[in-house]
Amino acid sequence: MKVNVNILLLCLLAVILNSCLGVSADITIKADGSGKIALEYRVSQALESIGRLDGNEKTPAVPVSRTDFERTVSRIPGLKLSQYSSKNIRNDSGGSDLVTNVTLDFKDTSALLAFLDSAGSNAVMVQEAQGALLRLTLLDPSSEGIANPDLLSLLREVSGSYELGLSLNLPRNASITTIPATVPAAKLVSGGKRVSFSIGMGELLSMKEGLVLEIKF
User: pLDDT (tens digit, 9 = 90+) per residue, 154-182?
Assistant: First the structure.
């Protein structure tokens, strides 16, 4: 996939290449642009090497240790790691997942965007006449996808019980929409100061036209 990412969007890339199977992010943005990110993601330990089956040996692993996160935070001015925990739990298939929970504080939206996407093209915020627009490219429409059909089939199967979830708590009433406009497998909650989006990882892997979220507030 043609995506330049840090933690959250890196997990989306790793769904395809390194088996990071579940991602949940709860982002709070205050009126002054500061806020926090509560992040949880699951890595299936039994599927740790799936990415290598498709010739992706050089793809970076998803950061899981406190040191990994501290290294990321040190590169982004205005970002601070406030909480970290990691543990193994049983998953629905009887295997084991490594579940990592992280809370980060950001000083302004520039730090938030740098965390979501270091390249600055897949997480963009623009000011409009009546507020702000946050655009997140979760799946690039120009993605080359997975060349190995057997690998794609396997990933769809094993990721069936996992989801990508994103929620935002905003200082003003907000709305959330997707591009394409209709994503039957997704769940959106829009209206009020809290909006959310979720989709099964299996459904996400099946999308051919890419996936973009637009949050207006």
Answer: 666 656 667 889 999 999 999 999 999 99
